[in-house]
User: Which sequence fits this backbone?
């Protein structure tokens, strides 16, 4: 605690106290609450007013906190891109399940792989950063589709090249809509060998500060390792980390 700058600490304490009183506080009230002499509090408040963190009501003489701290914090959120926000969590997720983790964003009717964190396994996924895959038959794609407006989902379906990539690929729109209902209920999507035989993926959506779906994250692996009895366990992990990334992006839903 030896490196604490006393005046900065006191100024921040004033801001913390004022944040609890939307109607404001008088000089004497602030002085009593933080245990400092009124002359010291007055000097600190004058500086905070000069820097626009505090304002004083000319009628009541009460001091109130402004939105400047919110504006500063918001700048950090706005500057935070998905890749930066997710990297540490993608690595942690990979370590927790020892399977490859993908981070994707939507581009048109496809998902694009933005990041890939490889696990230390003998059988590895053929995916790579920059690769595109359809929305309708991937776990990450379905996780994104589930949180788009219905008319947008229908437009994506109509303008996509729907192919039966494997015997398990969903090629009926009504069936896809039912699948998306399940995704919304559970919070995650599953690709049960729909995009590639022998590969199972579990994906969850990532939201930005505006509550919009920003992308998705998934665990992928061969069905011999990502078995059906491990789906729920892996789903809990991918949902946990998708929420952490969303929170990093400013989502508070």
Assistant:
């Amino acid at each position: 605690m030896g490196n604490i700058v006393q005046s900065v600490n006191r100024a921040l304490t004033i801001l913390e106290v004022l944040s609890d009183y939307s109607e404001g506080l008088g000089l004497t009230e602030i002085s009593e609450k933080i245990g400092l002499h009124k002359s010291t509090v007055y000097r600190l408040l004058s500086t905070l007013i000069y820097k626009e963190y505090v304002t004083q009501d000319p009628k009541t003489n009460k001091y109130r906190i402004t939105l400047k701290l919110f504006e500063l914090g918001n700048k950090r959120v706005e500057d935070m891109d998905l890749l930066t926000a997710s990297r540490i969590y993608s690595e942690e997720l990979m370590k927790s399940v020892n399977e490859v983790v993908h981070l994707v964003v939507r581009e048109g009717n496809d998902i694009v792989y933005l990041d890939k964190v490889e696990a230390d396994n003998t059988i590895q996924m053929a995916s790579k950063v920059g690769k595109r895959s359809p929305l309708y038959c991937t776990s990450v794609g379905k996780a994104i589709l589930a949180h788009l407006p219905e008319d947008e989902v229908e437009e994506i379906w109509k303008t996509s090249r729907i192919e039966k990539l494997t015997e398990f690929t969903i090629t009926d729109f009504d069936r896809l809509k039912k699948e998306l209902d399940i995704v919304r209920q559970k919070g995650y999507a599953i690709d049960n060998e729909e995009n590639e035989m022998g590969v199972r993926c579990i994906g969850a959506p990532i939201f930005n500060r505006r509550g919009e779906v920003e992308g998705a994250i998934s665990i992928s692996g061969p069905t011999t390792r990502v078995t059906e009895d491990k789906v729920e366990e892996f789903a809990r992990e991918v949902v946990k980390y998708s929420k952490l990334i969303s929170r990093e992006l400013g989502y508070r839903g």
Notes: The mean pLDDT is 90. The longest strand covers residues 213-222. The radius of gyration is 25 Å.
